[in-house]
């Protein structure tokens, strides 16, 4: 019997170059995903949903294990700015909305998505419905339900990132690569924390929403991005990931900085439009961040769980350190 060894081009983050690493076959791997023990049999036709999830596969050098990816129309800018743009170009884009029909058409053996990152009871696209079709699923840890209604998040956001990298490393037989990434990201975050000064400004993450703002609780990536960069998430007391709040709560918590998500969703789609709305919205007129015009923009793919999170921490830390 000849041993087959597949080689995958591993595209590292900007400035790190590229390397070739063998991907060893893993007949069966068992990991803990969203509190459940799940076994996988060496998937080779993975369908991913969302840019951050897709980039996790690319960062691990697993583009050749993918049947394709699904991303919404508001994420085109993320692809253009991605350190893994070459992988986005060579792996098929299957559509803008993930469905069971799309997954079956791609002959997928694994779907990597999350609640509100593709999985949804309202559309009927759930891990249970895919299991009925014989398709395995892996759920993004940031999006795991935490047992309180539909609230999401079961661990600190960066821990969720490292957990998914290690789990995927086991599932696909690239554990060494996963550990290298985790070690490198931990160092990048630690170096960014050295930039933090004494004052920790209050930060409001603004994703979207005119009637009610969509923001981040303590279980979504922006919470750790803000905290590790030297700020304080004004909604860090909410045991949820991405969630809707009221403008009255924003005013009461008086943020000193607004971190804007560059994501086309809702009426105000560009960062400039979002900033213009915030500056013109009467109830916010006396909020410190608005009066002092302190805004910072990060791309969507840097603010959802994914391999751009450590670089986002560094970028935001430098902004806050400048005062």
From TrEMBL:
The family this protein is said to belong to: Belongs to the bacterial solute-binding protein 8 family.
Keywords recorded for this protein, A-Z: Signal
Sequence intervals crossing the membrane: none
Top-rank taxon, per record: Bacteria
Signal peptide: 1-18
Organism of provenance: Saccharothrix hoggarensis
Protein name stated in the entry: ABC transporter substrate-binding protein
Taxonomic placement: Bacteria, Bacillati, Actinomycetota, Actinomycetes, Pseudonocardiales
Record-annotated Fe/B12 periplasmic-binding domain positions: 45-323
Pfam families according to UniProt: Peripla_BP_2
